[in-house]
Design brief:
Layout lengths: L2 E6 L2 H11 L3 E3 L2 E3 L3 E5 L5 E3 L2 H4 L20 E3 L4 H11 L4 E7 L4 H14 L5 E3 L7 H9 L2 E2 L4 H29 L9 H17 L9 E3 L4 E5 L10 H11 L5 E12 L7 H12 L3 H13 L22 H7 L6 H9 L34 H17 L4 E12 L2 E12 L13 H13 L4 E3 L7 E3 L1 H11 L23
Parallel strand pairs: 1-4, 1-7, 7-8
Antiparallel strand pairs: 2-3, 3-4, 5-6, 8-9, 10-11, 11-14, 12-13, 13-14, 15-16
Helix pairs in contact: 4-6, 9-10, 9-13, 10-13
């Protein structure tokens, strides 16, 4: 019986696939079972050839040799990873291998990694594609049960190939031209150069900006402030004399409430995360770079199997993912998300108006939790931060709109009109999922005790499998050591009194 060769993008993923597929016999650079052989790349094993491969004279940078425009782009094996390429090539050439499963990352670059290896090695046999959005055992098994024809992803490969060739043609030619012309080490690229231009243009705008003072008049009333507005509704003016005149005209006079208006308003839940939006929020909240966030997401996807595929530009899911949402909610019924996830789960059918949009899903759906319950204690602090952002956003998409009543007051002081706005919250809706940065004292205390105790001093929960708590004995020892060093006060209205009588933990 012919075997199926499975090509993963990196060893960690390949070994996980091998485990699920029952490939227990290990070889150098691969693992083998009765039906499957799983091997892996190390990122790219094959790349576009350097200019000197086409012509030896191109080793020297000379303006006269530009532009370099090969009729056909050549592929070469990357020297640093040539050993693994030879292993993959030899497996492809084995007589008992009948088909190939492309199991590299399910995206444009992952497709390029596999196709270039196949082209360089001369693969001619049938090929299929594994396309999954999470690395859980369930997702892997379902993916292998529903393999797609590799030809279905030919356009994805061509897109990646065109991108790579454009980088070569633009980057190498323009970099050499600039370096030769100015006799300096200068670089340019298809993305780098326009991005730099945007930064330069913005910097010029900042330098040319001339700040100008503006003025306004406000009334400080009992509990709120009202701002002066002219006949056109404008509250600010660059003319100081106008505002000084208004201020003098109000002195010694009583404000009269002339109009009250109420308007019911709603703010819909936010969309789920794609990679760009997640990187933006992670930078705002934790100062993580885009690369740091991607690396953390990759770990949460591959190692922890807690989140779905990170490299997505979609903020929606498709209809076929909806049946999995209850399992994903069950998976996040842990830690600080438990109560809210249970509430959403009980109030079915789920509110998926914001989350589901078939037309908005491209190669991959939005970043959401997997169906596998995470081990929060096994995550690093930064991993936990990213996981927290994604889970809270996922829960928010399933909640109703934030509903409030907007109040607008109009006050008259002499001939001058002032206005003030406020809101009365009617339903927190999706904002219940947004973490303000404050934890209830009891939850914070549990976190402090758990962190201080360490994994070896935690007791398993009898209620929820896989969850651990600090034992009473260990908790008392930690509390004794913290006494006089740490005070946790509860700012909730429903706080409980400590033995000391304080509204604390």
């Amino acid at each position: 019986m012919a075997k199926t060769l499975v090509l993963a993008e990196k060893p960690s993923v390949g070994k996980e696939l091998a485990r699920v597929l029952g490939c227990r016999r290990g070889g150098e650079g691969y693992q083998e079972g009765d039906r499957y052989i799983v091997t892996w790349a190390l990122g790219h094993l094959v790349t576009l050839a350097d200019p000197d491969v086409y012509d030896k004279k191109l080793e020297k940078w000379d303006m006269e040799d530009l532009p370099m425009l090969p009729q056909t782009m050549k592929l070469v094996v990357i020297r640093e990873t040539a050993k693994q390429y030879k292993i993959v090539q030899s497996l492809m050439n084995r007589g008992d291998v009948g088909e190939l499963v492309i199991a590299t990352d399910a995206g444009r670059e992952g497709e390029l990694v596999a196709r270039w290896i196949m082209l360089k090695a001369g693969w001619k046999k049938p090929a299929k594609r594994l396309w999954i959005s999470s690395q859980t055992d369930k997702a892997i098994r379902e993916g292998f049960a529903n393999l797609k024809p590799a030809a279905q992803y030919d356009d994805l490969f061509r897109s990646a190939q065109a991108r790579s060739e454009a980088d070569w043609l633009v980057g190498l030619n323009v970099t050499r031209a600039l370096t030769c012309k100015f006799n300096a080490q200068l670089s340019a690229g298809r993305v780098q150069t326009p991005t730099l231009a945007l930064i330069v243009d913005r910097e010029e705008e900042i330098k040319k900006f001339i700040p100008k003072e503006y003025y306004g008049v406000s009334l400080q009333l009992d509990g709120f402030r009202a701002s002066y507005r002219d006949k056109n509704g404008v509250a600010r003016s660059f003319d100081r004399a106008v505002m000084e005149q208004a201020a003098k005209g109000c002195q010694g006079k009583q404000a009269r409430l002339s109009q009250v208006s109420r308007m019911k308003r709603q703010t819909p839940p936010p969309l789920a995360y794609d990679l760009t939006e997640l990187q933006r929020d992670a930078n705002k909240k934790y100062a993580y770079s885009a690369k740091e966030t991607l690396n953390l997401m990759q770990s949460l996807y591959e190692r922890h199997k807690a989140l779905t595929y990170p490299r997505t530009d979609s903020r929606y899911i498709s209809d076929d993912v909806v049946p999995t949402l209850p399992d994903r909610l069950r998976a996040v019924m842990t830690g600080p998300y438990k109560a809210l996830a249970q509430q959403i789960f009980r109030n079915r059918p789920l509110n998926t108006k914001v989350l589901v949009n078939n037309a908005g899903v491209t190669d991959h759906h939005a970043i959401i939790p997997t169906e596998e319950e995470p081990d929060l204690l096994a995550m690093t602090g930064p991993e936990r931060n990213i996981y927290d952002l994604v889970v809270r956003r996922f829960l928010a998409t399933l909640l109703p709109p934030f509903t409030y009543e907007e109040l607008k007051l109009t006050l008259t002081v002499g001939q001058y009109s002032f206005s003030a706005k406020g809101r009365l919250v009617r339903d927190q809706g999706w904002k219940a999922a947004v973490w303000s940065g404050e934890l209830p004292a009891s939850m914070l205390k549990n976190w402090v005790q758990t962190s201080a105790a360490g994994r070896g001093n935690l007791s398993p929960s009898k209620i929820r499998e896989g969850t651990f708590y600090v034992s009473d004995a260990v908790g008392r020892r930690i509390d004794s050591w913290l006494d006089g060093r740490l005070y946790i006060y509860n700012n909730n209205y429903n706080s409980t009194k400590c033995s000391s009588g304080k509204d604390c933990c």
